[in-house]
Recover the amino acids of this structure.
């Protein structure tokens, strides 16, 4: 079993944790609550499963510090690891050893190799353990055994003769009890209670785990069966709502950066540029496609009604329209050259005359810009790795795979990416690229579709399944 030792505000607390997910944060939904500044409502999660402790960060939070360096989005932790979140620190400790002192806990700042939950961390034993293992001086008898017991009513031989039959009887009773199936009549109600409590805290993994330990539910009372079924219903609904909320969180960012900010910066004033409106309406259509159940959909539809009559998106745009649209896709990082080239090439198929000539010139310019951007981002990925920022380095390589829009460039970035697997991490330990890729698949499904179509990366994943 693992303990979490929390230090904040000059106080220390210790919590024991069984297998499952433990959420950390400052809000009501967090199981392990922190009062320090700089802590989100749900900042991160510890997942304890199959004897391994895994840290997962929530999107958009400031990464905790491990050994003075930002933690990765998802990584394995060893006992003795200390994380700094805001002004608080959390140290992982094995439940088998003594509680470390404040100096020991604050001094443990680096993550070692992952250990089994409940196993003692490697290194020198603690002071109490050393005292226990230290050799003891051999004691000498000042009197014989006969002299020691001569004044007692029961002699050693008599005691031995009495203990032998008692031991034999106890042995057969214990053997018989061990051969019988353990009565789990008390386990069912307890697991239902634990499942209800986890569901109340919206920790669905723990609720499912508790239900799985019940076994044969037909042995439960009718009331307990109904309660277990109710927890199952809450888990299903909670996961569905969580998936919608997680998806909508991406919609929040898109709405603010691609629609609201764009309207404020580009569509303000009495004179509205047709090319700008055209790009805005395309982004509105993309928002409707990706986040149809977003709570701000009414705002989006009002803008569509306002600007829609100004542009007919069913007809090809002018060169000025396409030029602005391409610029809007490539003026910020990450630049989306994949979409920009797609828009331009589709327009060139239907353009004629002078407009087509302008489009071909724009295509040449775009090719040169992409080459410079690609080489610059490759160097940035290498620079971030040297700085110890593994997550940012991997992110840039994934951006190149996804947004370059060129097969050769994507293959080259993928070759650099898969070199990370099995190499030494900047913070110590070995990099497991599968962990990083699982995060991209889970958090960025649209992004992931392009990545898994990359031939080099797809071939590597066939040999290294990311769910393994």
């Amino acid at each position: 079993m693992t303990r979490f030792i929390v230090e904040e505000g000059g106080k220390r607390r210790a919590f024991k944790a069984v297998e499952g997910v433990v959420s950390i944060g400052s809000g009501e939904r967090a199981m392990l609550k922190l009062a320090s500044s700089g802590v989100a409502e749900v900042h991160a999660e510890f997942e304890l499963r199959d004897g391994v402790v895994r840290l997962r960060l929530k999107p958009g939070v400031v990464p905790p510090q491990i050994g003075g360096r930002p933690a990765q989005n998802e990584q394995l932790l060893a006992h003795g690891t200390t994380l700094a979140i805001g002004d608080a620190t959390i140290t992982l400790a094995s439940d088998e050893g003594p509680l470390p002192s404040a100096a020991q806990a604050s001094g443990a700042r680096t993550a070692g190799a992952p250990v089994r939950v409940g196993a003692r961390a490697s290194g020198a034993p603690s002071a109490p353990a050393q005292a226990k293992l230290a050799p003891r001086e051999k004691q000498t008898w000042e009197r014989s055994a006969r002299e020691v017991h001569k004044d007692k009513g029961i002699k050693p031989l008599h005691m031995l003769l009495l203990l032998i039959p008692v031991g034999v009887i106890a042995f057969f009773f214990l053997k018989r009890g061990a051969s019988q199936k353990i009565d789990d009549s008390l386990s069912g109600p307890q697991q239902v209670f634990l499942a209800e409590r986890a569901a109340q805290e919206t920790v669905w993994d723990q609720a499912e785990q508790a239900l799985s330990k019940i076994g044969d539910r037909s042995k439960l009372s009718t009331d307990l069966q109904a309660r277990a079924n109710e927890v199952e219903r809450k888990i299903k609904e909670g996961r569905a709502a969580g998936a919608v909320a997680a998806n909508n969180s991406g919609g929040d960012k898109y709405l603010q950066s691609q629609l609201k900010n764009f309207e404020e910066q580009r569509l303000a004033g009495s004179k509205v540029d047709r090319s700008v409106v055209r790009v805005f309406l395309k982004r509105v259509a993309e928002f409707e496609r990706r986040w149809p159940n977003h709570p701000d959909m009414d705002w989006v539809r009002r803008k569509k009604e306002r600007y829609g009559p100004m542009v007919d998106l069913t007809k090809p745009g002018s060169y000025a329209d396409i030029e602005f649209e391409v610029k809007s896709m490539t003026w910020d990082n990450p630049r989306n050259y994949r979409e920009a080239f797609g828009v331009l090439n589709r327009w060139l198929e239907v353009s004629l005359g002078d407009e087509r000539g302008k489009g071909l010139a724009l295509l040449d310019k775009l090719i040169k810009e992409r080459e410079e951007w690609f080489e610059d981002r490759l160097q940035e990925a290498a620079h971030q790795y040297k700085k110890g920022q593994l997550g940012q380095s991997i992110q840039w390589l994934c951006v190149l795979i996804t947004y370059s829009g060129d097969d050769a460039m994507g293959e080259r970035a993928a070759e650099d990416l898969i070199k990370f697997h099995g190499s030494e991490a900047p913070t110590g330990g070995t990099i497991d690229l599968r962990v990083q890729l699982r995060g991209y698949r889970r958090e960025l499904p649209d992004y992931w579709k392009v990545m898994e179509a990359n031939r080099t990366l797809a071939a590597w994943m066939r040999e290294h399944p990311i769910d393994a």
Q: What stands out?
A: The CA atoms of residues 1 and 95 lie 5 Å apart.
